[in-house]
Design a protein that fits this description.
Oligomer: heterodimer
Number of helices of chain B: 14
Helix content of chain A: 55-70%
Radius of gyration of chain B: 24 Å
Helix content of chain B: over 70%
Structural class of chain B: mainly alpha
Distance between the termini of chain A: 52 Å
Largest sheet of chain B: none
Number of strands of chain B: 0
Largest interface: A-B, 86 and 96 residues
């Protein structure tokens, strides 16, 4: 087959993929990039306003509150998820009876839709008639139940639900990393008299460094961008207590359906600018983490 | 020393079982709750149902329109799987086996879309495009967008493609088989395991997708998928009094993916574990 024929055949085979990627992948990104300099509400004509959207962001207290909430949410989620996932992976990596089954159980939440689980958790945590509160009251553990989705505890509840869905995922990634550590290192260290905990501290942790750096990076980005479960569970409420960056952003594009009164009109131009700033914030955090964690990458 | 190890083991198992309990309990509550009456469910007094109401499913199926939602979910997921596998295996084949100008650019484009995911932002222009194509009030818009996000499957299939010996299809080409015929007759059958993993990943993603179908069905409730229909029950006027339907619906939406996961558990675990190595 000559070169021209091969090229023609290749283009015909790659065409569907390339077309879909360009039209539905690349073009939308370019679209958002353009409109962040426009005042555009989704109808009528777009008006070029230069940097006005970005000046508005600086004064948008709702947005900056959502940024603060995002840090609380992401920080809380990571503090629960990462140590737990690491611990479970370390335990399940060694010869333990039933570890396959336990791995299967712990990983299970990640195959279930976050939206569906958020609905279920809503019926469990619901302050009135919620299953958990009914249980607490009936068993005499609490007089009137806990206002799980109220202003005081909503963020905690949202974090717990998010952690429930995420631990198994990071456990699996840690397990993959642990399996790359040669068995003889453990044998040598146990000959030297190291116990399980010492082995974890002086063998597992240092050798897992590079994988850990990568996994935590992934976890940070996912946590900063996550909002699907919050959207179903609390819609950002009550009074914006669980409004996170990417949920706020979503509401700028699709105000319909959201019950929270935070945003009521479509704001494509402003939304694009908010998206850009949000992406930059995620990028900056990732970079800071990357440089701060370089030590992890040095295995010695 | 011996006593310490025994004690350590006991603590270890208490921890593991407690965590397994926390992981399973919401799912168990859902499954058991789907057989309770609404009153029993909201009273929260029982763990096992007083009596098993299998009729919840029949009623959720008919009254809460879950037959429609399930059908929509199936259409979206299966079409997304077929489309994604087709589009990305064809691309993976020519990228791995053929020479043509722009190959590097194509690979660059695919990795770019994989790393730059801006969620809600791209959803808006994607929706506008579908309006122009008159696909915004059908599930085809959702399906096309799901298929367009095939970058990760393309890379997975590419790595499987490298494992198929080149001699095989080179020999076929020598014998006068056209490259298209070689792809259908020789490459695709050999790509079986890769296609299986790709199918599971795509099915999981499409079946669980929430935002895309939500946006595309805002004006057309009859097009809602299971995830959307279920979440919307929460907002409905009658939702507060129909928790048992929500539980039955949640089970309808969880069970297929759970069964697929249990069957594929072993190869799936190895695959995900393997994908991090190298």
């Amino acid at each position: 087959m000559n070169k021209t024929k091969q090229a023609l055949f290749s283009y015909s085979f790659i065409f569907p993929s390339a077309l879909l990627t360009l039209v539905l992948g690349i073009y939308p990104i370019a679209w958002a990039f353009r409109y962040m300099f426009y005042d555009y509400k989704g109808f009528g004509t777009a008006r070029f306003t230069g940097l006005a959207n970005f000046r508005r962001i600086l004064k948008d207290t709702q947005f900056w509150e959502s940024v603060g909430n995002t840090f609380v949410y992401a920080g809380g989620k990571l503090l629960i998820t990462i140590p737990l996932a690491l611990l479970l992976a370390a335990i399940l990596n060694r010869g333990l009876r039933g570890r396959q089954l336990l791995r299967g159980i712990f990983f299970m939440p990640t195959v279930i839709s976050t939206a569906v689980m958020a609905v279920v958790f809503f019926t469990i945590f619901n302050s009135y008639n919620g299953i958990l509160n009914q249980f607490l009251i009936r068993s005499g553990l609490s007089d009137s139940g806990v206002d799980w989705l109220g202003p005081k505890y909503a963020m905690l509840t949202v974090i717990l639900v998010a952690a429930w869905g995420a631990v198994g995922n990071y456990m699996l990634l840690f397990l993959a990393g642990l399996q790359n550590i040669p068995e003889d290192v453990y044998e040598a260290s146990s000959l030297d008299g190291a116990g399980r905990i010492q082995q974890f501290r002086y063998v597992t942790l240092p050798m897992l460094g590079p994988v850990m750096q990568m996994v935590i990076m992934l976890a940070i980005i996912t946590a900063l961008k996550g909002y699907e479960s919050i959207m179903v569970l609390t819609e950002g409420g009550p009074v914006g207590k669980t409004e996170v960056m990417f949920l706020y952003l979503y509401k700028l594009f699709f105000p319909v359906g959201g019950g929270s009164a935070a945003v009521q009109v479509q704001e494509f131009g402003y939304g694009s600018a908010v998206a850009f700033v949000s992406a930059v914030i995620v990028g900056i955090i990732s970079l800071i983490y990357f440089y701060a964690s370089r030590r992890m990458n040095q295995t010695d | 020393m011996r006593l310490r190890t025994i004690l350590g083991n006991i603590i270890l198992w208490i921890f593991l079982l407690a965590f397994a309990f926390i992981t399973l309990i919401p799912v168990v509550i859902t499954i058991l709750g789907s057989f309770k009456t609404n009153a029993e469910l909201t009273a929260g007094a029982t763990f096992l149902p007083d009596s098993w109401h299998f009729s919840n499913y029949a009623e959720a199926w008919a009254q809460a329109n879950f037959s429609r939602y399930t059908l929509n979910s199936l259409i979206v997921s299966l079409a997304a799987v077929v489309g994604t596998l087709l589009v990305s295996s064809m691309a993976a084949y020519v990228v791995d086996r053929m020479d043509f100008a722009g190959k590097k650019l194509y690979i660059g484009l695919q990795s770019f879309t994989m790393f730059v995911a801006v969620g809600a932002v791209v959803l808006r222009p994607q929706f506008d495009l579908m309006v122009k194509l008159h696909l915004h009030s059908s599930l085809w818009g959702v399906i096309l967008i799901l298929i367009s996000a095939h970058a990760s499957i393309f890379f997975i299939l590419s790595s499987f493609m490298k494992g198929i010996p080149r001699e095989l299809d080179e020999a076929a080409l020598m014998d006068g088989s056209s490259p298209g015929r070689t792809f259908w007759r020789i490459i695709l059958p050999l790509l079986g395991p890769g296609l299986g993993v790709g199918a599971l990943f795509t099915f999981r993603g499409a079946w669980n997708e929430y935002l895309l179908p939500l946006v595309f069905t805002m004006t057309k409730p009859e097009l809602q998928t299971l995830t959307v229909g279920l979440a919307n029950l929460k907002y409905g006027i009658s939702a507060a009094s129909q928790t048992h339907y929500m539980m039955a619906g949640a089970c309808l939406s969880i069970l297929p993916i759970l069964v697929a996961y249990l069957f594929a558990n072993k190869s799936f675990m190895q695959m995900t574990a393997g994908s991090l190595k190298g």
